[in-house]
Automatic annotation (TrEMBL):
<dbReference type="GO" id="GO:0005737">
    <property type="term" value="C:cytoplasm"/>
</dbReference>
<dbReference type="InterPro" id="IPR042195">
    <property type="entry name" value="ArgJ_beta_C"/>
</dbReference>
<dbReference type="InterPro" id="IPR016117">
    <property type="entry name" value="ArgJ-like_dom_sf"/>
</dbReference>
<dbReference type="GO" id="GO:0006592">
    <property type="term" value="P:ornithine biosynthetic process"/>
</dbReference>
<keyword id="KW-0028">Amino-acid biosynthesis</keyword>
<feature type="binding site">
    <location>
        <position position="185"/>
    </location>
    <ligand>
        <name>substrate</name>
    </ligand>
</feature>
<comment type="pathway">
    <text>Amino-acid biosynthesis; L-arginine biosynthesis; L-ornithine and N-acetyl-L-glutamate from L-glutamate and N(2)-acetyl-L-ornithine (cyclic): step 1/1.</text>
</comment>
<dbReference type="InterPro" id="IPR002813">
    <property type="entry name" value="Arg_biosynth_ArgJ"/>
</dbReference>
<dbReference type="GO" id="GO:0006526">
    <property type="term" value="P:L-arginine biosynthetic process"/>
</dbReference>
<comment type="pathway">
    <text>Amino-acid biosynthesis; L-arginine biosynthesis; N(2)-acetyl-L-ornithine from L-glutamate: step 1/4.</text>
</comment>
<keyword id="KW-0012">Acyltransferase</keyword>
<keyword id="KW-0055">Arginine biosynthesis</keyword>
<feature type="site" description="Involved in the stabilization of negative charge on the oxyanion by the formation of the oxyanion hole">
    <location>
        <position position="110"/>
    </location>
</feature>
<comment type="function">
    <text>Catalyzes two activities which are involved in the cyclic version of arginine biosynthesis: the synthesis of N-acetylglutamate from glutamate and acetyl-CoA as the acetyl donor, and of ornithine by transacetylation between N(2)-acetylornithine and glutamate.</text>
</comment>
<keyword id="KW-0963">Cytoplasm</keyword>
<comment type="subunit">
    <text>Heterotetramer of two alpha and two beta chains.</text>
</comment>
<feature type="site" description="Cleavage; by autolysis">
    <location>
        <begin position="184"/>
        <end position="185"/>
    </location>
</feature>
Amino acid sequence: MIKNITNVRGITCWGAHTGVKSMKRDLAIIYSKVPASAAAVFTQNQVVAAPVTVSRKHIADGKAQAIVINAGNANAATGKQGMEGAEAMTESLAEELNIDKNLVLVASTGIIGVKFPTTEIVKGIQENAKNLTNRSNAGSFVANAILTTDTFAKEGFIEFEVDGREINMGGVAKGSGMIHPNMATMLAFIVTDIAIEPKFLKTIVKETVDKSFNMITVDGDTSTNDMVIVLANGLAQNDIIKSKKDKGYTVFKKNLEEMMVHLAQLIVSDGEGASKFIEYEIVNAPTETYARTMIRKISDSALVKTAMFGRDPNWGRIISAAGNAGLPFEYEKIDLYIGSEVKTIKVLEKGIPLEYDPYYIKKLLKESHLKIVLDLHNGKAKSKGWGTDLTTDYVLFNSVYTT
């Protein structure tokens, strides 16, 4: 049986249908039997949804015990009524679980600017809190209950050891459109039974998000609602991790990053209307921050995306996007490779175009998983990012999203 968030010690959950979405699960609850160290990263959009405001406040002390998520309504641009609805979600779940409401985090996803159905969702919480379980199907119910335009559920699970203790880590995520670096339209919830100090967890979460969720893009739009939340309840009973000197630090951070990259890549692979999953890699850069910034600029270029959709090895668009990243750029040093996941062709060497078989490279670009590598020959840092092509299906889908 495939493991998921229910295999993390002390974690129970449930996903249910409340009626906000037609015939689909639209409410998810994740609960730790003990308060957990908690950290999160939230959307950078200046229009902030009510659940983001509430969760930022509740997680400020680095502790949480439960997360409640609704799908079908974003509870964004809903004013006082929406804020009261987000608070009601935390209050009703806290009452059902007999915990402090400040230990409850809340998330929403769906259409922006529609009156929030507080009554239906609170009733759903009251009816379903009693169903919390660690049965494996409950984890899948949660993964499905948080979806909107996604075409499949996104889950992950990792086991590793710290201090001779088995550590479990599970995660779920959603997202397929309005995906852009700096936390876009996506939600991700990761739970683990490792013991770690809250402030240090916050530092690690920020660093790993920068290398995973903040390195994906589908359409360049950052949304109003999105967040990554990590709960670590300590039930593995390892020596608590407090600093980089602790022996569990390196292995925990490595596995957390692996989990985040896995979920982030699933989101990109489900991009609305997308036909290509594109991995961007920059090597031999001055700094990792430099490499990440340049990847974001290239991966978000509509001209690069459309070239990949059309199987056109138009390296000029890639170089132009790199040059527009607002960074010092020594074009005369670079090598550029374009192709598929398994085979790339060098098209530039030290800034000079090379001869290549255009028919062969177009054949490589017919694959669903593409790769673009830029070697700057200007340092030792590197980074990776992930994106999609821009298709006619994306335009058609998003032209009638609310109607």
